[in-house]
Amino acid sequence: MSKLSFRARALDASKPLPVFRCEDLPDLHEYASINRAVPQMPTGMEKEEESEHHLQRAISAQQVYGEKRDNMVIPVPEAESNIAYYESLYPGEFKMPKQLIHIQPFSLDTEQPDYDLDSEDEAFLNKLRKKMEITPLQFEEMIDRLEKGSGQQMVTLPEAKLLLKEDDELIREVFDYWTRKRKSSKSASLIPTVKQEKRDGSSTNDPYVAFRRRTEKMQTRKNRKNDEASYEKMLKLRRDLSRAVTILEMIKRREKSKRELLHLTLEIIEKRYSMADFGGEVMAEVLAQRALVKPLYTVPIVR
């Protein structure tokens, strides 16, 4: 008996489907060697995400039991519901404002900073208030300016004085606290940011990286090519067109200058004709007087 194989085929509404009765079905032990291997369809996930062990356990449990069970749940971080200080942070006296979006076009400096206070900052701020006056918003603005002015390398104390524009003693206290907290922190910045892919491609295996580049080019519409080559061609075309426009503008200015020179030459010839200067004596006299007077402007050279 030849080895039978099974291949997944799409259903066709124009072809009838065979219907078998119970007695027409063959014995299973005779056809146990049937190869029913179905090609694996793409899941739409990244390869690193497909190999995640919680997902593989859930898929294996579903294949074994055939139904959803408790051990098939992928763990997620739990959210706390009973918080003791919730009422102090969110009082119940809330009123819906007239405008939910406020635009401040003439006072952009009053925007809220991206840095937010935490419990450690509040403890330091309470100690600092005993010596000098400082508000939580002012502290957040100072830390925000230090973070945005640092980047990968931390700013120095003289640079911090130029960024903050506060009292020297206050700047020194906040700068020392920010330096200690920045060094003890595991991340490069105290402001949470979206983790993106590095330029050298070394973070491709990190599942927490957002907006990753695709290693393989996806097939798009046949009548529309969205690839890098087309983009570079469009940039080159735009650069060539801009150069053509610049050249045409310069040609226009040149032709205009030539036309003005022609009109001036014609006017000079008419004046000489009216003065009967056929020998060029008057013209030579005018040129000699003009050579004695130094012009206050540069005469453009027209070729």
From TrEMBL:
Any Gene Ontology CC annotation: NuA4 histone acetyltransferase complex
Coiled coil, from the record: none
First-listed, main subcellular location of the protein, grouped into a coarse class: nucleus
GO biological process: regulation of transcription by RNA polymerase II
All copies of domain Enhancer of polycomb-like N-terminal, residue ranges: 7-148
Family: Belongs to the enhancer of polycomb family.
Protein name as it appears in the record: Enhancer of polycomb homolog
Organism this protein belongs to: Albula goreensis
